[in-house]
Amino acid sequence: xxxxxxxxxxxxxxxxxxxxxxxxxYKGVFTLAKQVISKKGTEGIEFSFEAEDxxxxxxxxxxxxxxxxxxxxxxxxxxxxxxxxxVKGLTAKEATIQGRQGSEQVISFPGLQGKxxxxxxxxxxxxxxDNSIGYKFNIYAPFHADTELMAVELLDGKTAxxxxxxxLEGLADKPVQTRTTTTQTTARxxxxxxxxxE
Length: 198
Prior knowledge:
- The structure is a single chain.
- By secondary structure, this protein is an alpha+beta fold.
- It has one domain.
- 16% of the residues lie in helices and 37% in strands.
- It is built from four helices and eight strands; from the N terminus they run H-E-E-E-H-E-E-E-E-H-H-E.
- A hairpin with a 2-residue loop joins strand 4 and strand 5 (102-108).
- It is globular.
- The model is unreliable at 181-198 (pLDDT under 50).
């Protein structure tokens, strides 16, 4: 026979999502940083992020170089992220992770995993193959989790955060964008970023 005692924290979590579901400011750690390559040959890094409240955001992708090795905007965001996480370089290493289908071999960047980071995440809607609306999250901008300074402020030696409130004030959901292509896309709700490579 089991007796039960009331747990306030447990009660608060009932009905709450385990995943980040809104545009906004979050502090936490990366639980995974791995290499991704799009069907077009674009290179990038895909992150899993866990916020301080335990909620997660997966499939956060930064596309860094096109198939010809030309830097993309995502490389600038990655550099800002590395600055805010106080990481000078990323060394790629082979790793085995637990994926949806079991063990998976990946190229990971362990230098970012477990690092405390602040992120402005932007929710972006898109039309799925069945014409329903799905959403994914973009890393809009990183910031230093403890000081809330953004990369340029850290580099300039500032001590008081001035940019983050202004950037946050202008941050909003990105409404649905339809893409016309000659071939059908295969974006899936469980990994909506699969086909979003540049």
